[in-house]
């Protein structure tokens, strides 16, 4: 496997951080792009990689991050987007009435529009690459969630944002097929990231107990291993891959 230039949005924490470590370990030249400069710079210093502070919803910032990663020899070949936020609240209730629209706009802006923004700018940049020996110019990996399929009570905003990412995967792969650019989405189940680390140990254990097998929370390195496999397997394209230990979430 030759060394390629990769960028990981949301690479400062959780699934993104694990992906940065995996791709750097595989010998790739990785750029970390994240809102969180403290954690991003710390990880970049530890691994000897680059860091760019970037909000995935900002076109200029995403374009600048991609241009920086593309300065490497061979251009940008791998783009992984793990930047995302959680959102909770029922769509309407007797007590609170209709949920505020702003919560939906916030989640959809970061999780869905941010994904579209990263994907469109990464793909536009990759079109200028020389095809490799598989006729490929690049690969883009998005992160959805199994909430796109079996969202729980209180997850309408989050599920809507991730459902959009699921829906765009195949048409984006079709759009970009002529250039040899692949698009794949990973839909994780429950993973033990800083997001979940905020919960008490017994609550995390209870969540892990809902997973059929392995009967535990996913480890970020398991997401990263799949992301790396996607980069290495030219036949993986236009697909959403559930990575969830056979979990189908209950309503609550
Ligand atoms: N952890 C899980 O169980 C789980 C399950 C399903 C899906 N996911 C999805 O996986 C992705 C990563 O989640 P995680 O658990 O690693 O979370 P995390 O909070 O550990 O990491 C998310 C990273 O994204 C960054 N980020 C947030 N908003 C950003 C923005 N606007 N621009 C740039 N960076 C931004 C954060 O600073 C953070 O470093 C998210 O999209 C999340 O919805 C996570």
Overview features:
single chain; Rossmann fold; seven-stranded parallel beta sheet; 9 strands; 17% strand; globular
Description:
- With 252 residues, this protein is of the alpha/beta class.
- The chain has a single domain (5-241), classed as NAD(P)-binding Rossmann-like Domain (Rossmann fold, 3-Layer(aba) Sandwich).
- 44% of the residues lie in helices and 17% in strands.
- It has 9 helices and 9 strands.
- The strands form 2 sheets. A 7-stranded parallel beta sheet has the order 3-2-1-4-7-8-9, sandwiched between helices. Strands 5-6 form a two-stranded antiparallel ribbon.
- Strand 1 (5-9), helix 1 and strand 2 (29-34) form a beta-alpha-beta unit.
- Helix 1 crosses helix 9 and helix 4 (101-126) runs parallel beside helix 6.
- The structure holds nicotinamide-adenine-dinucleotide.
- Nicotinamide-adenine-dinucleotide is lined by residues 9-10, 12-16, 34-36, 54-57, 82-85, 110, 114, 143, 145, 188, 190-191, 193-196.
- The site of nicotinamide-adenine-dinucleotide has 29 residues, from helix 1, helix 4 and helix 7.
């Amino acid at each position: 496997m030759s060394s390629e230039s990769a960028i990981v949005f949301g690479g400062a924490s959780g699934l993104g951080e694990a992906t940065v470590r995996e791709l750097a370990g595989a010998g790739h030249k990785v750029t970390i792009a994240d809102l969180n400069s403290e954690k991003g710079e710390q990880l970049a210093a530890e691994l000897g990689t680059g860091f760019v502070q970037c909000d995935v919803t900002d076109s200029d910032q995403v374009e600048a991050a991609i241009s920086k990663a593309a300065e490497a020899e061979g251009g940008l070949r791998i783009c992984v987007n793990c930047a995302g936020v959680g959102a909770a609240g029922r769509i309407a209730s007797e007590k609170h009435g209709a949920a505020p629209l702003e919560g939906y706009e916030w989640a959809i802006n970061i999780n869905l529009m941010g994904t579209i923004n990263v994907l469109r700018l990464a793909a536009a940049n990759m079109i200028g690459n020389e095809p490799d020996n598989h006729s490929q110019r690049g690969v883009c990996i998005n992160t959805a969630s199994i909430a796109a399929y079996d969202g729980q009570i209180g997850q309408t905003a989050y599920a809507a944002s991730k459902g959009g990412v699921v829906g765009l995967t195949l048409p984006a792969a079709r759009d970009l097929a002529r250039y040899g650019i692949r698009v794949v989405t990973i839909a994780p189940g429950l993973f033990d990231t800083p997001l979940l680390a905020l919960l008490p140990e017994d609550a995390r254990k209870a969540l892990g107990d809902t997973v059929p097998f392995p009967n535990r929370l996913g480890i970020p390195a398991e997401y990263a291993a799949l992301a790396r496999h996607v980069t290495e397997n030219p036949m993986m394209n236009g697909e959403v891959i559930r990575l969830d230990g056979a979990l189908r979430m209950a309503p609550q």
